[in-house]
Amino acid sequence: MYKNILVPVAVDHGPDLGEALAIARALRAEGGQITALTVAEAIPPYVAQYMPEGQEAATRKAIHGDLVAALQDAPDVEVRVVTGHAGITIVEYAQRHGVDCIVIQSHRPGLQDYFLGSTAARVVRHAPCAVHVLR
N or C terminus: which one in the chain shows less Cβ crowding within 10 Å? Predict the structure, then answer.
């Protein structure tokens, strides 16, 4: 059983976490924690200069609020929103926070995934812990 489980959530794919949370709860040790993590893509500097000041923080706050609302029936899940590139940031978050299992959802790979690699594939290859992939 795992004490610190991370469940990455892709906001653009909808926060339907029913199956992922059920598996995370089944894998969680007594007294363990589950964290739902969303990675908001960083706004490139050449774009950010044309946006209102504080836009990136406002976007993270809105995403956090949406995720908290979607998980209102899951008081045992901690919600975190960070900025970065999804595949890299999930792995780095797991390393920094002592995550011992990641439960990540994945779509069926298409041709583009064999050339570019999906977020789930990157996490599987580089994670410092166990990874459970849901399809």
Answer: C
Range of the domain at 23: 2-134
Count helices and strands (H / E) in the chain. 6, 5
At 110, give phi and psi (nearest 5°): -105, 180
Partnered with residue 34 across adjacent β-strands are 5, 77
CATH number at residue 31: 3.40.50.620
pLDDT digits (tens, 9 = 90+) for 33-92: 999 999 998 888 898 889 898 888 899 999 999 999 989 898 999 999 999 999 999 999
DSSP 13: G
CA-based torsion, 10, 11, 15, 21: positive or negative: positive
Helix then strand then coil, in percent of the chain rounded to 5, is 45, 25, 30
DSSP letter string over 44-79? PHHHHTTSPTTHHHHHHHHHHHHHHHHTTT-TTEEE
Contacts of 54 (CB under 8 A, 6+ apart): none
In the three-class reduction of DSSP (H, G, I as helix; E, B as strand; rest coil), residue 43 is classed as coil
